[in-house]
């Protein structure tokens, strides 16, 4: 090991780790920055995110608005986002030759629509800045030294013991609480990890045959709870998914865990209507369209297959016209349109978007520098912190921001 350079060790080869390592190495070329990754793969989540397109960030350029998208950690992120927000992320990638584009829902992707563009940009920036990447290597042990810094024991391909002036933990979220024991041993408090961003299993779903049908705007409410979210909804072979469910699962991560992921989800397929306005609208519609057959003429822009399923469940026969529709099945139809009950019995991880709610509590971290308030020289970035955002690029933005601030702080302290 070259001991004439100050050494910074970054644990974790994901988005936050790379951003921290690059920020440190670019700001202080005299520092020796080692990025340690226990697997043989770098930037795994970056490569698979957004269906392989990489949802880099969200077009939300006000810190006050950006923090509204974080079920946990939002308030504490306001100042960090003022230091390095979504606009800074866009600029950072543009300066390195990667243009981002904004989609209708605010999500931002590289114009190439390929996550490889982002991964290669980060790899090239790290290489150019002189970051040393150690693959299939694990930080088996590290301990703070009385004179400051850390003794770090690496095992695996690049086994060695070294002294690091600064240490950045960017190891990501851990699904099981025991995975944080090594940080507890340093005195840090851990918010218990539970899953966030998941879909709902509905094994007895009356909509099973409609797999693949989606609606652009629905409201999902958990009966008896103060949990609801509105957005696109997708019917799957196992239950329901789509942004409305994923975002609801993020906001309700802890409560849904307490409920063992069981309960009743009430789906409002036409959230722009109240019961009163819907009854008035149908009254007028019946007067003007009495001869139309109910089942075959979908209303409210709903997919025909979904409309037919709802009407059949309401007990409406195949040939019944609006003028002939009795009050009882009409009332059932109204109830199903506004409050269709689905018996949730478990959850399913949503592709690669799995996020852990929980981690190092933010009160023990200086959010300006991401440095531990308990262990000088120890920094944190990314999902290892008790920060998680809803789907839409927000988790990556938290990784870029915390990684950048940690890297800048480490660079300044090792000059």
Automatic annotation (TrEMBL):
Protein name (Swiss-Prot/TrEMBL): NAD(P)/FAD-dependent oxidoreductase
Taxonomy, superkingdom: Bacteria
Entry keyword set: FAD, Flavoprotein
SUPFAM superfamilies the UniProt entry points to: FAD/NAD(P)-binding domain, HI0933 insert domain-like
RsdA/BaiN/AoA(So)-like insert domain mapped to chain residues: 194-355
One protein family per Pfam: HI0933_like_1st
Organism this protein belongs to: Hymenobacter cellulosivorans
Zinc recorded as keyword: no
Domain spans labelled RsdA/BaiN/AoA(So)-like Rossmann fold-like: 7-408
Regions that span the bilayer: none
């Amino acid at each position: 090991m070259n001991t004439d350079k100050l050494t910074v060790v970054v644990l974790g080869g994901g988005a936050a780790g790379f951003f921290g390592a690059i920020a440190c190495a670019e700001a202080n070329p005299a520092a020796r920055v080692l990025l340690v990754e226990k697997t043989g793969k770098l930037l795994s989540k970056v490569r698979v995110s957004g269906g392989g397109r990489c949802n880099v960030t969200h077009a939300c350029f006000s810190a006050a608005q950006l923090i509204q998208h974080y079920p946990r950690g939002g308030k504490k992120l306001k100042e960090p986002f003022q230091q390095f927000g979504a606009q800074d992320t866009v600029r950072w990638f543009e300066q390195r030759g990667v243009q981002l584009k904004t989609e209708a829902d605010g999500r931002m992707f590289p114009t190439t629509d390929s996550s490889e563009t982002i991964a290669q940009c980060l790899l090239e920036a790290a290489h150019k800045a002189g970051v040393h990447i150690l693959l299939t290597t694990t930080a088996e042990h590290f301990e703070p030294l009385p004179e400051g810094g850390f003794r770090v024991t690496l095992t695996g391909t690049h086994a060695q013991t070294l002294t690091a002036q600064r240490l950045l933990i960017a190891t990501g979220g851990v699904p099981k609480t025991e995975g944080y024991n090594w940080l507890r041993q340093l005195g840090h408090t851990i918010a218990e990890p539970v899953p966030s961003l998941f879909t709902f299993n509905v094994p007895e779903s009356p909509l099973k045959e409609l797999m693949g049908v989606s609606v652009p705007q629905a409201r999902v409410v958990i009966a008896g709870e103060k949990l609801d979210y509105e957005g696109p909804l997708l019917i799957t072979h196992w239950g329901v998914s789509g942004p409305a469910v994923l975002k609801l699962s993020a906001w309700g991560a802890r409560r849904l865990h307490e409920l063992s992921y069981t309960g009743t989800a009430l789906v409002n397929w036409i959230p722009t209507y109240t019961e009163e306005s819907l009854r008035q609208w149908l009254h007028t519609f019946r007067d003007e369209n009495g001869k139309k057959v109910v089942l075959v003429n979908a209303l409210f822009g709903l997919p025909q297959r979904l409309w037919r399923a709802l009407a059949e469940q309401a007990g409406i026969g195949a040939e019944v016209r609006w003028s002939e529709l009795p009050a009882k099945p009409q009332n059932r139809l109204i109830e199903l349109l506004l409050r269709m009950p689905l018996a949730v019995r478990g959850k399913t991880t949503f592709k690669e978007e799995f996020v852990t709610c929980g981690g190092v509590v933010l009160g023990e971290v200086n959010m300006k520098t991401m440095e531990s308030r308990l262990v000088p020289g120890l920094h944190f970035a990314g999902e290892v912190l008790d920060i998680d955002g809803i789907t839409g690029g927000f988790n990556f933005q938290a990784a870029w921001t915390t990684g950048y601030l940690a890297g800048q702080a480490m660079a300044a302290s090792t000059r």
